[in-house]
Each structure stands twice: as C-alpha cells, then as structure tokens.
Amino acid sequence: MGTLPSVDEIMGYFSSLSNWGRWGKEDQLGTLNFITDKKRVEAAKLIHDGTTVSTARILDPDNPDSLGRGSTLQRFMVWTGDSGIPNDHLHIDGPTQEKIRLRAAREYVGMVAHGSQTHVDALSHVMWDGHMYNGFPASAVTTQFGATKLSIHNVEAGIVSRGVLLDIAALRGVDWLGVGEGVYPEELEEAEKRQGVTVQEGDVLLLRTGNFKRVEAEGIHPKQGQAGYSAACLPWLHERGVAMISCDSINDVQPSGYDRVELMAPIHAVGLSAMGLWLVDNMALDDLAETCARLNRYEFFFSMSVLRVVGATSSPVNPVAIF
Of 204, 126, 117, 218, whose CA–CA distance to 160 is shortest? Predict the structure, then answer.
C-alpha cells in the first residue's frame, strides 16, 4: 500500500500540478485538450465486434438517492395517455379530446445533478482560494446566470477517446474495497500489468472498486464513506496526461485521510481547480468489468455526451464503452 502525501505536499500540488495557462488563458476545457483528432481516430480502431456496455446508473424517481448523496429526481407528467393533447396546443376550438385519435405523453424532469446518479463535473464545480481552473474567479458562478465561465455547455464535441478500465477489486481478489480504502499509484500500475494495458495521454480512466456491490450488501455508510482514488494518485494522473477519470464512487476515497475540511476531497479540489481534470462520479462499472474479463480486453472506444445546459456545473451522462 502506498503513502498519503502530507498536507504540505497536497498544498504544493495546486502549483506543481497546475495546468493554468497551458492551453491559453481563456481555455475552458482543461485536460480534454489531451484528446486530439488523432487520438479519436486511434480510439475508433478499438471497435472490433460492436459490443456496447453502458456505464450509467439508472435514473429512478422512486429511488433517486440510492447512494445517499443528497440527490433529488422528480418526474411530473404534463400529458398522459388518457389526458390527450390540450386543444389550445393543437390550435383548434371545436372537437373534444374524445373525437381526436391522437394521443401523446409529455413530462417535466428535474434533478440535482451532483448526486447519486452518474454525472460529469464541469470545471466550474469546485473553487480553491477564490478561483476555478485557469484562474477564473469563483464569482464567475452567479445566482442569476450560473457558471459564466467553465460551464458544462462548452463540451460541445462530447468526450470521445480511448477508455481504460482498471479493476482494483479484481486485483485485490475481493468483491469490493472497504469504506475508506484508497487506491494508490502502485496499484494502478499493478492493475496495468495484470490486465496488459497502459494508461496513456488523452485516455479516459475508469476505476472499479466494487462500491455498488458493497452498498447493496452493507447499505449506505452513515458518513457516506467509500473507496476511491487516494490523493497520492494526483501526480500520477498528471504525469500520464489522463483526460478524464471516473470511478464507481465520487472518485475521492471517503474519508480522505485528512482532518482538514478543505481536504475532504483532494481529487476534486486539486483535479478540478488546478489541473482542469474532468471527473465522472458514480459510474456503473460492474457490467463493464465482466465484459472486459470475458473478452480479455481492458481498452475500448469510449463515448460520452453531455447536456449542453448554459451555466450548469454538471450534467447527467450515459457513458458507453464499445468493443
């Protein structure tokens, strides 16, 4: 097992791992800049038989907070199969709904995107010392307009690249990692060797800890504890030039191992605000791990689109792996 960086070392990461200005002072994409057109073409060559696997959790309004992350998810039906389409919407005056054979359903869906569902964090999600990634002020996220800088809608091309799954639960020979068990760079490299794959620049890294199976068996931890990346992984992720990371938890191991409140989630704090590193929380990876093991392939074509909501700091997503 590795060693956690000291608090002083973590504080140093905000400078030593910073990507501010690397792609220009107005850059709003951060590490997604590592995904080049050439990288996308190379990723497309990984599609052999067309097998697809979704890595998104199901959105269920009847069970919106299955991981205890403070989620809300509401679905209100506007039109239903028995209500028909209102006459004023059809721009007619005479016929009643009983005389109209056409029916349609319509609903309103609302949610808190940073919750139990699979979601991507925009770089406007986290601030440190009054600034977001690339030096944009925290005040650029306003009550009226939301994120006026680093909004999720900037990811207009989606995220298409080579995906790599590192199955740490399988590496340790367990069904799941326990609450508060962090993953260290040494294990990332051991998993690479075990699976015959190497994480490269521009990759999307998916880390499996077995967290969903743990929650199913043990229930939600009262303090939202879970396994995930330890802060020691930050220099490794920076050195490898990873474009985006994800995990079957919120990425950060919880508790993080630090007593200071501002270091409760150092992967989020340093990754988002200093590195411009994109994070997908709560990715469903059990089916993907089974497919990778069956095919003996831990690299694949990865595709993910976001909702281009202006001013939003997050988006629910359905990432797909294609083999």
Answer: 204
Beta pairing class for 314-316 and 119-121:
antiparallel
* Confidence tier at 320 by pLDDT (50, 70, 90): very high
Q: What distance, in Å, lies between the first and last C-alpha atoms of the chain?
A: 32
244-247 vs 141-142, strand pairing mode: unpaired
* pTM score: 0.94
Any idea what the Cα angle at residue 213 is, between residues 59 and 258, rounded to 5°? 95
Residues 6+ apart with CB under 8 A from 73: 59, 60, 61, 64, 109, 110, 111, 112, 115, 117
- Write down all domains in the chain, each with its CATH number in brackets: 7-65+113-322 (3.50.30.50), 73-111 (no CATH)
Q: What pLDDT, in 10s, does the model give residues 216-251?
A: 999 988 788 999 999 999 999 999 999 999 999 999
CB 202 within 8 A of CB 35: yes
Residues forming beta bridges with residue 283, ordered by sequence position = none
